[in-house]
Amino acid sequence: MNQDELKAAVADAAIEEIKSQLEKDTILGIGTGSTANLFIDRLGPLRHHFKGAVASSKASAERLEKLGIEVFELNSVGTVPFYIDGADEVNTHLHMIKGGGAALTREKIVAACAERFICIADGSKYVPQLGHFPLPVEVIPMARSYVARELVALGAEPVYRQGVVTDNGNQIIDCYEFMIADPVAMEARINAIVGVVTNGLFAARGADVLLLGKEDGVERIALK
Ligand code: 5RP
């Protein structure tokens, strides 16, 4: 199976994971990226079985609405029972690096409001240590150079993601050559730099369930 087929398999598995728990008033939290898109596409036919969704990006909101799924503002919803999203890397503790698609801040906000985070990823994303994938950091534009210098002091090689403006009007710095020994501590450390909106480590609030697409099928890894 190629990577796209593995992504499709985990999107199918995520539908199976939540289908029986959908109710007329259920509002789902929906992530961003190619794996999340495959999940969104599979939600379309189920749209009459739940109320709607909160999206972690404008792109996902548009895709949901095109399928006839109502998109709600998070402020009017409170908590969501599930947040379903992909990852750029995920480790055995279900800590993740996310933000390859520059949606990390909204993803982290919706994840914070979720009772269960279901991560859907092809097997290439499962790693013993986070950091081969460059860690994205969303920054307030005027703070970009300052934050980059602070990231160098932490041992990263920061690179400005040219031409990318986030849904929040901010910029992205990617941290290369930055293997992360303690994701919980590093998430907090980077978030404490003035001018950082958030970073792509999802460790303080990692996933609860990982649906991992492998050659021999989808493996379900659950922490609780
Ligand atoms: C977007 C994300 C995505 O979840 C992550 O980049 C994985 O994307 P894909 O499913 O396309 O591999 O964090 O900001």
UniProtKB/TrEMBL annotation:
Pfam families in alphabetical order: Rib_5-P_isom_A (PF06026)
UniProt GO BP: D-ribose metabolic process; pentose-phosphate shunt, non-oxidative branch
Protein residues bound to substrate: T32, G33, S34, T35, D85, G86, A87, D88, K98, G99, G100, G101, K125
Pathway terms, separated by semicolons: Carbohydrate degradation; pentose phosphate pathway; D-ribose 5-phosphate from D-ribulose 5-phosphate (non-oxidative stage): step 1/1
InterPro entries: NagB/RpiA_transferase-like (IPR037171), Ribose5P_isomerase_typA_subgr (IPR020672), Ribose5P_isomerase_type_A (IPR004788)
Residues forming the catalytic site: E107 (proton acceptor)
The entry's keywords: Isomerase
Domain of life: Bacteria
E.C. designation(s): 5.3.1.6
GO MF annotation: an example: ribose-5-phosphate isomerase activity
GO cellular component terms given for this protein: cytosol
Keyword Phosphoprotein listed: no
Catalyzed chemical reaction(s): aldehydo-D-ribose 5-phosphate = D-ribulose 5-phosphate
Database matches in HAMAP family: Rib_5P_isom_A (MF_00170)
Sequence similarity: Belongs to the ribose 5-phosphate isomerase family.
Summary of subunit composition and partner proteins: Homodimer.
NCBIfam families registered for this protein in UniProt: PRK00702.1, rpiA
Physiological role: Catalyzes the reversible conversion of ribose-5-phosphate to ribulose 5-phosphate.
Protein name: Ribose-5-phosphate isomerase A
Source organism (scientific name): Halomonas campaniensis
Gene transcribed to yield this protein: rpiA
